[in-house]
Structures are given as structure tokens and as C-alpha cells.
Amino acid sequence: MLVLPPNSGKLFPRVRTGIRIALLLVLYTPLRGIADDNPPQSEAARRGHAQFSQSCAFCHGANGAGTTEGPNLLRSGVVRHDQNGNLIAPVVRDGRPGKGMPAVHITDSQIADVVAFLHWRLDDADRATPADAHDSSLQHLLTGNADAGKAFFNGAGRCSHCHSPSGDLAGIATKYAPADLQARFLYPADVPKTASITTPSGAQVTGQLLYQDEFSIAVKDREGWYHSWASSEVKFQIQDPLVAHLELLHEYTPASVHDVFAYLETLK
Ligand code: HEC
Ligand code: HEC
């Protein structure tokens, strides 16, 4: 076990990409015009390509465009809204039990390479068929039906379990420009996960989860102390307040996204 004092948090700088910038990139990448040549493939993407061929292509197709065994990853909201593996890596690591997507046992750096490859593929595909990419453009988003969105909000979307149009979401459309609102709704700001650890001696430590993989787990406790353990040494439970949002990403159809977005836009 390792314990470090509060001011050593800098050892683990957290990089938060601006959501707005990321979204604008998603929306406007295809509008840069049709490129004269393909985007250059980074070293990581090159390695990821080989890894993808070996571990994923059987089901998702050599270029990620899907087969009868697995969906087209170029039309996947998970892939399109992924930032540095935050959405793709959990699917690869844990699979989708019962849905035909196995947990794929490759290392974190191999996953990072596959993620780099998928982003490169998406960029490449957007350039080749910009019309497809416009599916996610704002103009298209604003064509939803607000009444249907309200029904989704209170029904199948389960949004009303956690949100209220007269409470936390009151005035949300005034608070954010449409592009920001879309980003917040599909991928809310990083809300820290909490982990409760039971150490071998039976002691309990609860704190903000800083890091976790198959080998180690680290938290910052309420006093700001950093603790880490080998994952195999301890029992732990992780609470992620955004799990519902991530799960919803898999359930949305394009129509329900547009509808619920149109409804959110009425909350001025
Ligand atoms: C045995 C077939 C199979 C293999 C191998 C496989 N997948 Fe999948 N994958 C699937 C299926 C089927 C789904 C759809 C699961 C569902 O309906 O939720 C899926 C879903 C996904 C999704 C989520 C798509 C979305 O929008 O919900 C991602 C991302 C993904 N796979 C990436 C990968 C990567 C990367 C690899 C290789 C490291 C891989 N998969 C290997 C069958 C496979
Ligand atoms: C299980 C609880 C839960 C469910 C279900 C849920 N959300 Fe959220 N939502 C959260 C949490 C937690 C946050 C992050 C904290 C925050 O920003 O308010 C969040 C953030 C948001 C935000 C950003 C708010 C802001 O001020 O940045 C929007 C918009 C939003 N959710 C819309 C929805 C919609 C629409 C649905 C249904 C389709 C939904 N949520 C379903 C818990 C939930």
C-alpha cells in the first residue's frame, strides 16, 4: 500500500479537455472541406490498426464498418463521443455481457492504440462521406419534436428520475448555447467517481477514485490524502453518478436524441 500526502496530487495531473472544443471538433471536422489526402496515421493509430485486425475485425469488420457479428463502429455514438478512450475503453475491457461483445483482454496501452485507430478511422470516414457526419450536426439536432422529447424525458429516458425541468434543469437552455447543451447532455462534465475500499485488515477508506485498473486502485480521501493498493489486495466498490448517462448513450436512437434535445431547448 502507498500513502502520499495531499500536496502530491500533482503527480496525477488530470487533463480535462474542454467539452465545448471537443464538440465543435466533432461538429466541424467534416466541414473543413474534403481533404486532398487522408489524415496522417499516427504511430499509435498504426499499432492500433494491427491490434484491431487481430482482436476486433472479426466482428466489427476490417475497417470498423461492421459485420453480421458486430455493429458499425463508425456510426456509434460511443466512438463519436469518446475522448481519449473514456467511452471506448470500458466497453473493450468489460464487454457487453449477453449482447455479443466479449471483454477483450488486451493491455491498457493496446486499448489506447485501438482508440487512436478508431478516431483516425472516423476522421477518415467523415472526410470521405461528409454527408454522413452531418447526421450529428446541430442543425439536424434542432429538428426534434419537443413534445415527444418531453414524453421521453418522463418515460423511457428515465431523465425525470434524476432531473426536474423546474429544478436543476430550469433555464438550462439559457445557461448553455445549443452546442454546449448538447455536449453536456450527451456527456456531462466529469463528475468524480467515489470508491469504498475495504483493506485486508478490514479498515474502510472512502474517497474520490483517482485511478483503477486490473493491477491497482487509488483514491483521495476526504482529508486529501492519496492512498493506493494492489487491486488484488483489497475489496472495493465504485459509485459512478454518471453511469446512467453512459448507459443511456447506448439506448438513444437518433430520433430520441433530437426530441429530448428539442425539449431541453424549451427550458428557457
Ligand atoms: C465476438 C464479436 C466481437 C468482438 C471480437 C469485438 N466486438 Fe465490439 N461489439 C460486438 C457486438 C455484438 C457489439 C454490440 C453490443 C450491444 O449491442 O451493446 C459490440 C459493441 C462494441 C462497441 C459499442 C458500440 C456502441 O455504439 O454501442 C464498441 C466501442 C466496440 N464493440 C469496440 C470493440 C473493439 C475496440 C474490439 C476489439 C478490441 C471489439 N469491439 C471486439 C462484438 C464484438
Ligand atoms: C441516474 C441519474 C440520471 C439520469 C437517469 C439522467 N441524468 Fe442527467 N445528469 C445526472 C448527473 C449526476 C449529472 C451531472 C451533474 C450535473 O451536471 O447536474 C447529469 C447532467 C445532466 C445534464 C447537464 C446539466 C448541467 O448543468 O451541466 C443534462 C442536460 C442532463 N443530465 C440531461 C439528462 C437527460 C435529458 C436525461 C434523460 C435522457 C438524463 N439526464 C438522465 C444524472 C442523471
Topology of this protein?
Elements: E1 2-4, H1 19-28, H2 43-55, H3 57-60, H4 77-80, H5 88-94, H6 108-128, H7 130-133, H8 138-141, H9 146-154, H10 172-175, H11 178-186, E2 194-198, E3 204-212, E4 216-221, E5 226-230, E6 235-239, H12 243-251, H13 254-265
Antiparallel strand pairs: 1-5, 2-3, 2-6, 3-4, 4-5
Task: Considering the chains and any ligands shown, give keywords for the structure.
268 residues, alpha+beta, Cytochrome Bc1 Complex, Chain D, domain 2, 6-stranded antiparallel sheet, 6 strands, binds heme C
Structural Rg: 20 Å
Overall pLDDT: 78
Structural class: alpha+beta
**Spatial ordering of strands, largest sheet:** 1-5-4-3-2-6
What binds here, in terms of ligands, is: heme C
Short characterization:
By secondary structure, the protein is α+β, with helices and mostly antiparallel strands. 41% of the residues lie in helices and 12% in strands.
Structure description:
- The structure is a single chain.
- The chain is built from 13 helices and six strands.
- Among the domains are: 33-132, Cytochrome c-like domain (Cytochrome Bc1 Complex, Chain D, domain 2); 138-189 and 244-265.
- α2 (43-55) crosses α6 (108-128).
- With 268 residues, the chain is of the alpha+beta class.
- The site of one heme C (HEC) has 21 residues, from α11, α12 and α13.
